[in-house]
Fold Nucleoside ABC transporter membrane protein.
Amino acid sequence: MTFDDLHIGSILVSTVRNAPVLIFAGMAGLFAERSGVIDIGLEGKILASAFVSAAVAFTTQNPWYGVMAGMLVSVLLATLQAYVAISQKGNQLVAGIAINIAMSGLTFVVAQYIFQQGGRTPDLGSARLFDVVLPGSAAVENIPFLGWLYAHLIGGHSVLVYVAFLLVPLVHWVVYHSRFGLRLRACGENPHAADAAGVSVERQRYFAMLIAGALCSLSGAYLSIVQSGFFLRDMSAGAGYLALTAMVFGNWRPLYTFLGCLMFGFFGAVQIQIEGVELPVVGRLPGALIQMVPYVLTVIVLAGLMAKSVAPKALGTPFVKSR
C-alpha cells in the first residue's frame, strides 16, 4: 500500500465509528465536572461496562441485556465514587484513579475465571449490535458521492452511533436550557450560592454522577458489543483520558467537547490508515510510533489549552455546608 491508496472516505467513516466511545465518555465527564466533581474514573467505568456488557450479551445472546447490565455496573461504580467524593469529602482524584486501577485488574481476573480464555470473553457472534441499513440505501448506492454519503457515512452504523450524535444537542439543551442544568452549573461554579438559593448541592452532584455513570457505560458497551465483538483486557486503551482531554479542549461545553471527540476520532482513523503505508519522504513508519499519535496529540492539546481553558470554579472542592 502506498500513500496514494489512502481513501479520505474510509477515514471519514472510521472517524464516525471511532467517535462514539469518546462522545459518551466526554458527555459523562461533562456532567460530573460541571457539578464540581472531578471524574478521573471514566476509564475504569468504561472497562467495567465493556466486560459486563460482553459477558451478559454472550450469556443471554441478547446485546440489549448486555447494554443494560453494563449500565447497571457503571452506575454502581459512579455511586461508590460519588459516596467517597461527595458524602465523605474524599480526594476526588484518588477515588477516580482507584476505580481505574481496580477495574483494570478485576475485569481481567473475572473474565479469566469465568471464560478461561486468557482474560477475554468469547466472540459474541450474533449477540453483537450490528449496523443499521437506512431505507433506500441500495437504490442510491451507485449514485456518485450521494450514494456513499447516504449509505456509508450517514447510514451503515450501529444504533449506538446515532444515539451518540443525537446525545450532543440533548446535553447542550439540558446544561444550558433546563432548570436541572442551571442548578448543575451553579453547583460547579458557586455551590454556597446554590445552597443559599435552596438547592441541595450534594443531591445535585449525586444526580450528575449517576448520569455520568449511565452515559459512560455506553462507551464500554460500544467498545465490546459493536466495535470488537468481545472483551479484551484494557481494551479502552486510554479512551477515558482522551475523553477528559476532549472536554478540556471543549472548555467544558458540550458542542466543543463533541468537536474534540471528533478530532481524536479522526486522528485514530488516520493512525489505522497509515499503518504499513509508504509515506512520502519518511517512508514506512514503525507501528509503535503510529500508535503513539493520539497520546502525543493529547499532551500537545493539554499543553496548549490548559492555560486558556476555564474549569468550573468549584471543581474538585468538596462542599461543606455553611452554618
Remarks:
- The chain has 14 helices and two strands.
- Strands lie at 278-279, 283-284.
